[in-house]
Amino acid sequence: MGSMTALRPLDPVALRRDFPLFERDFGGRTLAYLDSAATSLKPRAVIEAVDGYNARYTANVHRGIYTTGEEATAAYEGAREKVARFLNAAESAEIVFVRNATEAINLVAATWGQVNVRAGDRIVLTELEHHANLIPWQLLAQRTGAVLEFIPIDDEGRLDQAAYAALLATAPRLVAFTAVSNALGTIDPVREMTAAAHAAGALVLVDAAQAVPHAFVDVQAWGADFVVFSGHKVLGPTGSGALWARRALLEAMPPFMGGGEMIREVRLRSATWNDVPWKFEAGTPDVAAAIGLGAAVDYLAAIGMENVREHERGLTRYALELLPREVPGIRLFGPRSADERAGIVTFTLPEAHPHDVATLLDRDAIAIRAGHHCTQPLHERLGEPATARASFNVYSTTEDLDRLAAGLRSVQRVFARSA
Amino acid sequence: MDDLYRDEILEHYRRPHNFGTLESPDASVEGSNPLCGDRITLMLAVGEDGRVEDVAFTGRGCAISQASASMLTDEIRGRSLAEVEELTNQVVLDLLGIEISPARLKCALLSIDTVKKAAAQVRGAGDAAGA
Fold first, then answer.
1. Does residue A126 have an active-site annotation?
2. Residues 319-378 of A with CB under 8 A from B
3. C-alpha angle A386/A387/A390, rounded to 5°?
4. What would the pLDDT profile of A68-110 be if each residue is shown by its tens digit?
5. Does the structural domain A46-302 have CATH classification 3.40.640.10?
6. In this predicted complex, what is the ipTM?
7. Which of A18, A21, A78, A277 has a Cα at 20 to 30 A from A386?
8. Which residues of chain A are within 8 Å of residue B37 when distances are taken between CB atoms?
9. Cβ contact A64:A75 at 8 Å
10. For strand A366-367 and strand A271-273, is the pairing parallel, antiparallel, or unpaired?
11. pLDDT tens per residue across span A31-66
12. If you classify domain A12-42+304-416 with CATH, what class do you get?
């Protein structure tokens, strides 16, 4: 974890053997899966961990006084410890299991926000945000009368740090921003932005949904107050994810949803709350998904996140060089240097809409994302209603990108026909 | 892959029919596909006889959404508002004449949804004026 061991080049071709989806035949080819920023493929270790719970020790957690009940509780809490280690959290009590990053942000807005945000208070967001880190704050602002402010971006998709400094001078309550843009791949300077926010008296929420899969995230080094991510983008199952927050904050926050598990003592007209993190986990959780997430972070930790980052930086550099050379007129968005971006490459073709591009690529068994990627305000800023996006994970190869380039040329041939 | 984007569709996409605006439309309706950001603005002018006299659209989007708007606006010219409101989705799919995957259905049907809203708007205004 953050160790200084030498980088070992990751072998994506070998790793592909761990992902059963590559065994499926797509018209004589494997799938060139270039939509990992939407969701990642799942390695066998994760599938087996989920199956293991469902097949051999199914039981509710924190309840059963019998063998499988104790096994299930141990596996569920063990997964929490694995996630805590993976993020370098000070203790596993700081990890709240949620369905996804969206739920985690809604949790913070509904609990911390409801108690701490008043009419006229400022919340600073950015033009890069996914709707998940925008709409919960819009809803909170509507309820409380808080005011939303936005850090603008430059033409390469980097946050304007001078504008940020000016916004901090207005003493906001909270700064919420993404560590990595899901639409452009921009890596934001989390540590510096967090320190500046704290100096201005604001708390910080970091949307790490695109950061956790692509680089080593160290919540203590970041120093933020809330960090959220989704398990399904980190090789884990859908329905898994986590909110990390400092213990003192979690303890001061009111509960999110009410029900079983989150209580200590219940009377007919009142109740007291369980300790953190269980205070925020009402009802039977998605036990299988949490156990699968534990297996996923074990898998990634064994590869080493430094190696994952190097692999994706190499693929990004390869794509940024290959696509303009092989695909005439292609427009690339985001920072020009692979050092400033995660494994996400966003583009448009002059002759074809991204939806048509995605449909035609699908015929060649190439999966990309087309649309606004849940970032409509950012697309307004870019002046494009939609873009196409190729995104990578540990199993992605330069061959996937060669197939993408060839597929894009073939799209151009279709659209050039009888023009 | 050529069956998917047959020449007629590409032709309508590149040079859409009825593309532009009307000076004094009886209805102007904006339709959008929130999934992909496809957007069209459709204008209708209706004659004394209650038939579509003129129709125009502007928009930005994929070949499927723009070609379907181009073909459908050709199709409704001269039709009565009641006929326009009774058009089925199948009419548009037949005009396109290609296989539309479930994920692309919203692109194909954006034009007919917007056309029907425009027809309803003209009729609503007429009813209100007559009341």
1. no
2. 352-356, 359-360, 363-364, 370-372, 376
3. 145
4. 999 999 999 999 999 999 999 999 999 999 999 999 999 999 9
5. yes
6. 0.85
7. A21
8. 371-372, 376, 379, 385-386
9. no
10. unpaired
11. 999 999 999 999 999 999 999 999 999 999 998 889
12. alpha beta
